[in-house]
Prior knowledge:
Blueprint: H1 2-14, H2 28-58, H3 65-68
Amino acid sequence: MMDALVPYAWKAFVLEERSQAPSGLPYRFVFNGFLPLGLALVALALFSRLTRCTTLLAGFPRATSHATGEDD
């Protein structure tokens, strides 16, 4: 997806894409630029969730008696 969205946003920026309606959006290329950014943030959130689930399933980090606040 990123390999298609980045050139799409760049082309819209270079051509200064605008809305065809007279009272439409003057800088439509700005919204096209947020598409790859949004996709990158979703990928980052997916990676974060994957690492959290993996560490939970692997049982890492393990709790120690000092970390839990128990007295020896």
